[in-house]
Design goal:
The structure is a single chain. The chain is of the alpha+beta class. The protein has a single domain, classed as Aminopeptidase (3-Layer(aba) Sandwich), CATH 3.40.630. 29% of the residues lie in helices and 33% in strands. It is built from 4 helices and 7 strands, in the order βααβββαβαββ. A 7-stranded mixed β-sheet has the order 1-2-3-4-5-7-6, sandwiched between helices. A hairpin with a 7-residue loop joins strand 6 and strand 7. It starts with 12 loop residues before the first strand and ends with a strand.
């Protein structure tokens, strides 16, 4: 993994995402994305026992969350979100660190994700973290109006 410069992170506590967290998670989804995940997407992921965490600040405020899907020898990051007011403080890197640790605990050697072509900020975070662009998924993401948006497929090798 490449060296990543980590901005000053606020104090946070990570915990497994639970159904009672979804009210706050959905409020963030609606603010953070033009086409957010649905409540059902989160419920289904939790019911399938996918690894998922929330990050909370010192006053128990929601700072971010992630959901991933394990597979054979690999993990697929499905959703990672930092509350917009908390972006730029290293929380995405902190969550990626926790996800990579989860991959190691499970003996998984590859981490995959898709990112919107237009999301240059996230793409930069992933590149600095060590992800490589390995492909493109055409018309992958829904949009509010117009044609669906392409996604970049990115991958990170996870060593034990």
């Amino acid at each position: 993994m490449n060296a990543v410069v980590k901005p000053q992170q606020p104090d946070f506590e990570a915990a497994a995402m639970r159904v009672p967290d979804l009210t706050e998670v959905m409020a963030v989804e609606r603010v953070a994305y033009p086409v957010p995940w649905t409540h059902g997407n989160f419920v289904d992921s939790l019911a399938a026992d996918y690894p998922a965490e929330v990050l909370r600040g010192p006053r128990a405020e929601l700072l971010g969350y992630w959901v991933a899907m394990p597979g054979v020898d690999e993990m697929h990051l499905l959703n990672i979100t930092v509350v917009p007011a908390w972006q730029g403080r290293g929380l995405a890197v902190a969550m990626l660190d926790r996800l990579v640790d989860e991959c190691r605990r499970r003996g998984l050697t590859q981490l995959w994700l898709e990112v919107r072509i237009s999301n240059t900020r996230a793409r930069d975070v992933y590149r600095r973290y060590g992800f490589s662009e390995v492909g493109k998924r055409r018309a992958y993401y829904p949009v509010v109006e117009g044609p669906r948006e392409d996604a970049l497929l990115m991958s990170l090798g996870v060593s034990s």
